[in-house]
Specification:
two-stranded antiparallel sheet, alpha+beta, 3-stranded antiparallel β-sheet, 3 helices, 5 strands
């Protein structure tokens, strides 16, 4: 890695950490590994939120705008995503690539019910008594 690229990466990572300090939330967990094996700048993100209003979406936009060479996939399950089309029973894939964030269909899991969950949780037989 040449010195100019290394310096640009360090600046990007510092700017990202600073942005996250003021824009993150307790429901958004993230770990940035500046150097991991033979890779540089590996970001892991975990989010468990039951509504779309989250700094996660702003974070994706920030990464795409400031880290033009960044890339990654984020799987989102949103049972309230029915505004444009009914996506409540599927994962949506959000891809960062070439300075953009694109939303795509998930080609792997298919419908959550019945592929991952046999039925809705409220349809499952519950025991009469819990011991």
């Amino acid at each position: 890695m040449n010195e100019a690229v290394r310096k640009a990466d360090e600046t990007l990572w510092a700017d990202f950490r600073e942005w996250m300090t003021t824009n993150s939330s307790p429901t958004l967990l993230w770990i940035l590994h500046e150097h991991h094996n033979n890779h540089d700048g590996v970001l892991q993100v975990f989010l468990s939120r039951n509504h779309r209003g989250s700094p996660f979406w702003d974070m994706l936009t920030w990464i795409a705008e400031h880290g033009k060479g960044s890339y990654g996939l984020f799987y989102v399950k949103d049972d309230e995503d029915t505004d444009r089309e009914d996506f409540s029973n599927v994962f949506r894939v959000h891809r960062i690539m070439s300075g953009r964030v694109d939303e795509l269909a998930d080609p792997f899991f298919g419908p959550i019910i019945p592929n991952l969950e046999p039925t809705h949780p409220w349809d499952r037989d519950a025991p009469d008594e819990i011991e």
